[in-house]
Amino acid sequence: MRYLAIDYGLKRTGFAVCDQSESFVSPFAVIDNPKQVNQKIKDVICQENIEAIVIGLPLNMDDSEGFQAKRTKAFAAQLQSFTDLPVYFQDERLSSFVAKEKIAEAEFTRKKKKKRLDAIAAAEILSMFLESQRK
User: Fold this and answer.
1) pTM for the model
2) 65 or 130, higher pLDDT
3) Which residues span the domain enclosing 119?
4) Number of structural domains found in the chain
5) In sequence order, what are the residues at sequence separation of 6 or more whose Cβ sits closer than 8 angstroms to the Cβ of residue 36?
6) How far is 85 from 83, CA to CA, in rounded Å?
7) Whole-angstrom Cα distance, residue 72 to residue 78?
């Protein structure tokens, strides 16, 4: 199944996709204009033959839901209304930390790292989701 993972944020939103066999996860894009996120999601769904969506849910370390988790759930509900695709949540705690570790090794400028970070975090979210599905 082809999944689109979304690392939703108020300033930037990262996307990642996997192949049909769910073996390879790739960072896809970062949208830094919140007004373009919905259209970009529609475009990616069509271009990449996406069959389901995974959204990173930013839970607190004590498993409670804070402000951003509630905003993310509202975004997911709105997304569900215009895509008709299944939407799943994946705990995204530490995904940004792992993404920062991965990109630290790359020889990008600070600006380029920042631009790619959310897509790498989305790829980490999708990898965690796929791993949980295999168990």
Assistant:
1) 0.86
2) 130
3) 3-134
4) 1
5) none
6) 5
7) 10
